[in-house]
Specification:
Length: 223
């Protein structure tokens, strides 16, 4: 049964995914479909973030606000690890699969899941209601499944090449470093000195100051 399921999954991916229509077309199609859904989810979240039962309220504590802001800021360095080649992201260059093992990947093999965890932690502590708790649980369930399924699919598709990468990296941050499977080079921090990280830093800062504009736009939509 499992074999037939995997064969069916592969057939669907081949027909509808990058292998079927080409990497550029698939990337554009994915962006056209996913970006409106993402903005819809963001605006819905903004409009309903204070719904539900208030479990605690630490929003007036300056130390909590600062700690949550820093945690949230760091989360975006994890959330967008695949922006090293912006031309591939925009499908100007042909998108390729990269087995990164530098920069943030030395810290964790699934930086998006770790970044989402940091984001959820910061927002749950700051907002402190049942809506935020359930939102965080749903997001982390999604990313936990994605980490497991991503490892499974990459192992099936790339075999030993991915297994070697997997053996030298970890899901838990710095676990591979602590147990000696990954060694941080002397120029480790220089691996973060890249244009995309600067864009993430500027974009995250701009998004923070644009919160009133986002809240106003969400209120107009009334979702």
């Amino acid at each position: 049964v499992a074999s037939r399921r995997y064969q069916a999954e592969a057939a669907i991916n081949q027909a509808l995914g990058a292998e079927g229509v080409g990497e550029r077309v698939w990337r554009v199609f994915f962006g056209v479909v996913s970006l409106p859904l993402a903005f819809s989810a963001i605006f819905f979240f903004i409009n309903h973030r204070y719904d539900g039962v208030q479990l605690w309220d630490l929003r007036l504590n300056p130390a909590v606000h600062t700690a949550c802001w820093i945690t949230n800021f760091i989360s975006f360095w994890f959330l967008y690890p695949s922006t090293f080649n912006l031309l591939e992201v925009a499908a100007v260059d042909k998108p390729k699969f990269h087995m990164w093992e530098t920069g943030i990947m030395r810290v964790t093999r699934h930086p998006q899941a770790v970044g989402q965890l940091l984001w959820c932690l910061a927002h749950t502590v700051y907002v402190g209601n049942s809506f935020m708790v359930w939102t965080s649980l749903g997001l982390m369930a999604h990313h936990s499944f994605g980490a497991w399924n991503g490892d499974r699919r990459l192992s099936n598709q790339y075999g030993e090449a991915f297994d070697v990468l997997k053996s030298r990296t970890s899901i838990l941050p710095f676990a591979a470093v602590i147990d000696g499977r990954q060694t941080l080079p002397d120029n480790f921090l220089q691996e973060f000195a890249r244009g995309p990280y600067l864009l993430i830093t500027v974009g995250t800062t701009a998004a923070y100051f644009a919160h009133p504009l986002l809240q106003g736009a969400a209120a107009l939509l009334k979702w």
